Amino acid sequence: MRFEGTDSYVATDDLTLAVNAAVTLERPLLVKGEPGTGKTLLAEEVARALGRPLLQWHIKSTTKAQQGLYEYDAVSRLRDSQLGDGRVADIGNYIKPGVLWEAFESEVPAVVLIDEIDKADIEFPNDLLRELDRMEFFVYETGRTVRARHRPLVVITSNNEKELPDAFLRRCFFHYIRFPDRETMTRIVDVHYPKLKRELLREALEVFFGLREVPGLKKKPSTSELLDWLKLLLAEDIPPEALQSQVREGGRLVAIVGTGMAGKAMLFRRVDGDFSGFPAFDAPAPPLPASTSDTLRAVVPASEVSRVCIVVL
After folding, report:
1. Sign, CA torsion 66/101/31/39
2. Which of 51, 136, 210, 256 would you call most buried, defined as having the most Cβ atoms within 10 angstroms of its Cβ?
């Protein structure tokens, strides 16, 4: 069975080629790309499309490779031995299988997501080389070797925050998810908002891609943030003319802002070099320096921001 995308996930031709190549070659698929481009969602949709179970391993800065194999709870065993618990006679009672162990013993081929591998220590990928290559590992406490019944499809995501070892990269099939162009983005929006008016979508994409081209913007808005913005426009029933008029007048009424505790969107308007607004915050309007008069900038108290989105008034 080949992956061709799903009804809720738009996959480009090069992405479907990469997924199917990884399945054929039986190699881990390493996916990089900007945050918000659907890397994590890819594993979920591949599992759904291929009819395979999905096992997820979300990596943190403190995650160790051993945790993906198994963990031995020596503390619990010591406590139970002091209490006279009969379970201490079998050390297997204190071994907790990890995600890879579960995938190796799955009755059917599984999909394993190792999410944001670049968050872990630099040695983390190297510690998994042998296990991912040979599809087996040794449990020292029991003297047992766990071998994969079926080779799982391993999808590894990275935000490219740090370089991965060359030895690890050689064992993976690599694919970089490029940021969607306008045509692909239109298809993505259609999946989520099939009834969105074409005129509103066209104007929204014009503003969105224009914002991404602003020089010096540290964090460019992503696909997920575009979808959040469109949801807000629909909820507020913003007409396309509101976007058109401001663009024609040359007014930069766009800001990267957040939704506050009250759940109300922040709306900003540039007046005489300043942004004014803050309807949900009791705070002064932040000044817009003359040297950055063409830069879209809005400051929101960090403690109040729960989600980034784009707002056009």
Report:
1. negative
2. 256
